[in-house]
Amino acid sequence: MNDHDHELRQAEAGDVGPRISQGERAVPSRRSRGLSVRAIVPNAITAAALCFGLTGIRFATDGAWGQAVLAVVLAGLLDGIDGRIARLLKAQSRFGAELDSLADSLSFGVAPALIIFLWSLQDLPRIGWFAALALALCCMLRLARFNAQIDEEEQPHKSAGFLTGVPAPVGAGLAFLPLYLWMAFGEPLFREPVLVALWIVAIAFLMISNLATLSWAALKPRRSIRIELIALLGIMSAAALLEPWFTLVAVCAIYLALLPYGFIRYRKVKQAQLNASDRGARA
Q1: Surface-to-core class of residue 182, CB atoms within 10 Å of its CB (0-12 exposed, 13-18 middle, 19+ buried)
Q2: Which of 34, 42, 74, 85 has its CB surrounded by the most CB atoms within 10 Å?
Q3: Quick one: where's region Disordered (predicted)?
Q4: Is the pTM above the cut of 0.90?
Q5: Any idea which fold 35-149+156-271 has?
Q6: Does the structure show a pLDDT above 80 at 52?
């Protein structure tokens, strides 16, 4: 058995850590006594995000709605950094990818659906439960679609620097918008189960839609406004501590306002790519 076959056998046995790329020298065949820190750190962050999301359900069963929502929001923040840390440490692995998908489906699909059901939709048991199911199911379908397309070369949105549909963490945050408004203003209308059901069904279908949405990579502010943008982010960070519910409402409003902008910008980018390819073909 050569070194390459030995490494493949190790990968199939479930080793956690970065795979050896073609052209790299294989590690000598000494049996490892454990996982390296660089393999543990990103997966531990993903596991922590999963625990935060599930803990949100526990808070919801006690009627602690603010803590329940903030637990899911914290899970979203951790989800935003685990992949980046894995790439920084060169610790990407198949195990990490599968754990991340499982954590996302529970933290941003199941947990928000149950929290919102316990908060509002249980007053409309049948329709409310179907709406909650739609949110959880569509989140899982989105993640399944993402995993199925991850190795495909032809991905029009990704090649243009955009995402397909609303990401799962963002979808969970948007689904909580009625709860943010209720916490901020105390208006019973925002807890009306029919309105809440319609809202989360709309968010559920946005997650599985083919709508081109902006990714962090696509957001490239002009150099002339970067100082102002840094100041704005600093102020919003302080506002998140002092007035978390108003801040979350503002973040949701900004994201929803950017959806049409993302759609228009994607069409312009694709048209520019088509024009460039036409010029190349004529040349």
Answers
A1: buried
A2: 42
A3: 1-29
A4: no
A5: Four Helix Bundle (Hemerythrin (Met), subunit A) (1.20.120)
A6: yes
